[in-house]
TrEMBL record:
Keywords: Ribonucleoprotein, Ribosomal protein. HAMAP family: Ribosomal_bS16. Residues 97-119 have a biased composition (Basic and acidic residues). InterPro entries: Ribosomal_bS16 (IPR000307), Ribosomal_bS16_dom_sf (IPR023803). Belongs to the bacterial ribosomal protein bS16 family. The keyword Ribosomal protein applies. This is Small ribosomal subunit protein bS16. NCBIfam families: S16. One of its GO terms (biological process) is translation. GO terms for molecular function: structural constituent of ribosome.
């Protein structure tokens, strides 16, 4: 079975991805059948050289799209990159850190209020 998916390229913090057709059982970095485009999340627009006609041809032959590639193709057809570029995820760890910083500050003020009331 064939899959159209992303294949990572480049350095760790400067990833680019090739959109490729591969056998689904092959490893992610394994041999490819055809290169269909490039996805670079750091540029605008992030997808370049996307071969829509070839992607549709491969889908007609039974290739399955990964969820990310499906989303990228849909955005490329609509030319709607604004949402993708604005989206900013905050990790749970960072959210928890921010909440922890806020809570002790509030807790100290409550303790200070109690000391003032008892004096």
């Amino acid at each position: 079975m064939l899959a159209i998916r992303l294949q990572p390229q480049g350095k760790k913090k400067q990833r680019q991805f090739r959109i490729v057709v591969q056998n689904k059982k092959e490893s992610r970095d394994g041999p490819i059948i055809e290169n269909l485009g490039v996805y670079n999340p750091k540029t605008h627009p992030p997808v370049s050289n996307l071969k829509i006609e070839r992607i549709e041809w491969w889908i007609s032959k039974g290739a399955q799209l990964s969820e990310t590639v499906r989303s990228l193709i849909q955005r490329a057809k609509e030319n709607n990159w604004d949402e993708l570029l604005k989206r900013h995820k905050v990790s749970k760890h960072k959210k928890a850190k921010k909440e922890d910083k806020k809570q002790p500050a509030e807790g100290k003020s409550e303790e200070a209020n109690k000391k003032e009331q008892s004096s």
